[in-house]
Structures are given as structure tokens and as C-alpha cells.
Design goal:
It contains nine helices and six strands; from the N terminus they run αβααβαβαβαααββα. With about 250 residues, it is α/β, with parallel strands linked by helices. It has one domain: 3-Layer(aba) Sandwich (Undecaprenyl pyrophosphate synthetase), CATH 3.40.1180.10. The chain has a six-stranded parallel β-sheet, with helices on both faces. β3, α5 and β4 form a beta-alpha-beta unit.
Length: about 250
């Protein structure tokens, strides 16, 4: 059965960039009578499986929504556990990232994360920076609106600090989509071709608002800890059935 699903995927028409909103850890734990943190622990195991499978398939970029700017509103105990889990994952999986030739990138307001987490992020990103097979982009302390605000701030700072003979009108007109895209967290990465959201929720939740203008969306009722590579295959197969017109005919 699993092999049959995999055989339906056209390896010549894979999405270059897959983004995933990993939702449902808390509900998974509640359904089983466990504390919410057990859902996050189980969800981290799924991350490893999906990262490995995307790399094996030939996906070039995988972006995972790991911790949003709104997640700080959760109970302190849960947030602290998530930070410890993140630090543990980065430290433990560094060797696997190297072994599988996966480069780690991180998108978000990293400077607001705990210092020990920042240290592990910087170490893993530095060590894997020359890996070529796939980019794993973790969205941490990330929000789509915050990303746009940060990009505007950096852009304005650069434009006002450069000595230029351009008048104000010409300066404003010099800003286009290409320039703006070079200031967002994912600068240099292709926009997602496919966005997957688990848990049955049908919304974007402030994720990659600029980047997903023409992204294909795929929703599933499966909770993230129950998500398997077979579900990934189904999402890719559905993606390959769609005609992407990008506003054209």
C-alpha cells in the first residue's frame, strides 16, 4: 500500500519548497489523556521522519512552523518545555543534518529566544551552512506580520543611510517586490509551492503571508503526531494534480 502511494509521485514534478504548519500536538495529547507536553514530544519524532523523507524524495526546501510569536501566550511551563525540546533537537540532530547533507536555516526574531537556544541555533546553522541536498528552514518566534514589519524597518534604514542623489519620489519608486523580498527572513529561498496544515484547522495563522501568494494549500484532519510520510505523499500527489496558473489563463 505504502509503495503504491509512493509510485504515484512524479519525481520530475516535485514541489521545490514545502511549508508545513504542524498543528495538533495539544489535542493529540488531550485525546490520549496525556499532558500537552507529551504531544510536543511525540510531534518532535514526526519532525525527524518528515525531514528525512523530504530529503530522500528530493525536496529542496522544507519550512516548518515550529514556534510563533503568539505562542509566548501559552502557559509558562509549556513554553519552557518547548524551548528545552528545541535546544535538545538542535543539539541531537546536528549530526543527522550533516550526515544527510541538510543545511539548517532559521526564520524569525531569534534574538528574543533564550540565550542557550540561540547558541544551539547559531552552532547548527554554522556547522551545516555548506550542505547542499536540502534546506531545513525552522520558523521560530515567527509571525508573518512581524516579518513584514521587520523587513520594512530594515529597508527604510538602508535607504535612509545610503548617500544618494535620488529625490524622495525616485527613492520610493525604487522599491519593488524583488527588493522587498530580499529583506524578509526567507530571502534567497524560493516561495513555497505547497503548504500543508495538519489538525483540521483551515487557516494560515500568520504564516509566510508574503511568500504564499500563489502557494497551493493542502489541509488534513490528521493531528501532527499522527502525520506520517504516507500523508506527505498524498499531499504531493494532490499538488501534482493541480494546474498552477499564477494569475494567468
Amino acid at each position: 500500500m505504502k509503495k503504491n502511494i509512493l509510485e504515484k509521485i512524479d519525481k520530475n514534478r516535485l514541489p521545490k519548497h514545502i511549508a508545513i504548519i504542524m498543528d495538533g500536538n495539544g489535542r493529540w495529547a488531550k485525546n490520549k489523556g496525556f499532558p500537552r507536553i507529551e504531544g510536543h514530544r511525540e510531534g518532535m519524532k514526526v519532525v525527524k521522519e518528515i525531514v528525512t523523507e523530504c530529503r530522500n524524495l528530493g525536496i529542496k526546501v522544507l519550512t516548518l512552523y515550529a514556534f510563533s510569536t503568539e505562542n509566548w501566550k501559552r502557559p509558562e511551563r509549556e513554553v519552557n518545555f518547548l524551548m528545552r525540546l528545541l535546544k535538545y533537537y538542535l543539539r541531537r540532530e546536528k549530526n543527522n543534518l550533516m550526515k544527510n547533507d541538510i543545511q539548517l536555516r532559521v526564520s524569525g526574531r531569534i534574538n528574543e529566544l533564550p540565550k542557550l537556544v540561540q547558541k544551539e541555533i547559531n552552532s547548527a546553522c554554522k556547522e551545516t551552512k555548506n550542505n547542499k541536498s536540502m534546506i531545513l528552514n525552522l520558523a521560530l518566534n515567527y509571525g508573518g506580520r512581524v516579518e513584514i514589519v521587520d523587513a520594512v524597518r530594515k529597508l527604510l534604514k538602508d535607504l535612509t543611510s545610503v548617500k544618494t542623489e535620488l529625490n524622495t519620489t525616485n527613492l520610493i519608486n525604487s522599491i519593488d517586490e524583488e527588493l522587498f523580498s530580499s529583506y524578509i527572513y526567507t530571502a534567497g529561498l524560493p516561495d513555497p509551492d505547497l503548504l500543508i496544515r495538519t489538525s483540521g484547522e483551515i487557516r494560515i495563522s500568520n504564516f509566510l503571508l508574503w511568500q504564499i501568494a500563489y502557494t497551493e494549500l493542502w489541509f488534513t484532519d490528521v493531528l501532527w503526531p499522527d502525520f506520517r510520510k504516507e500523508h506527505l505523499y498524498l499531499a504531493i500527489i494532490d499538488y501534482q494534480k493541480r494546474k498552477r496558473r499564477f494569475g494567468g489563463i
